[in-house]
Amino acid sequence: MMSKFFSFTASRDWFYRYSFAKAGLRAQSANLGDGTIMHCWVPKIIKSSKPNLLLLHGFGANAMWQYGQHLHIFTSRFNVYVPDLLFFGESYTSRPERTESFQAQCVMRLMEAHGVHRMNLVGISYGGFVGYSMASQFQESIEKVVLCCAGVCLEEKDMENGLFAVPNLDEAASILLPQTAEKLRELMRFSFVKPATGIP
Fold it and tell me: What backbone torsions phi and psi does residue 43 show, to the nearest 5 degrees?
């Protein structure tokens, strides 16, 4: 007899998919060529009276998890686009590049594939680095930029002076990409004001 288990992530994904659809967005994948596929939530109906808003997520499962609880704030005032960055969610590439500059180029190609040539953007954490790179590379296309929790100007001396809660970039990478259960717990402590307890 096969037993069924409750999956927190699967149920949360279902909830977010439902809420994104209810907010007037639909999931769509675009083939950018060169082995690059990007998944994005796009407006079901584009209103020319509304400005375009690109929401770039940070490290996490996919874009839904970053913006799911705040989406309704944006959709009433903007045509909202919420892509999964490469190697998150359903976006991937067979190309070897792994920089935020390459991510920015792919996101811009994605937006152009959807007919969007002018936009505002919000980038959180890693998405802030990608957004900063987009603003630098495509100045004529980016109107306003909001970067949240993204140390785009952080230098080694800032870490030495205690501005960042880890001693160096290698330690930061080991926290952001946890390889052990203890490192995952450490990431949770850094990520939440009130981290959940009792997670196996």
Answer: -65, 140
- Per-position DSSP letters for 113-135, written without gaps between them: HTT--SEEEEEETHHHHHHHHHH
Residue with tokens 């996101």: 107
Q: Are 131 and 123 in contact, with CB atoms under 8 Å apart? A: yes
Per-residue model confidence as pLDDT tens for the chain (200 residues): 444 667 777 888 888 899 999 999 999 999 999 999 999 999 999 999 999 999 999 987 788 988 888 888 999 999 999 999 999 999 999 999 989 999 999 999 999 999 999 999 999 989 999 999 999 999 999 999 999 987 777 777 766 776 666 666 677 778 777 888 888 888 777 777 777 776 66
Of residues 38, 176, 187, the one with CA closest to residue 113: 38
On the 0-12 / 13-18 / 19+ scale of CB atoms within 10 A, 61 is middle
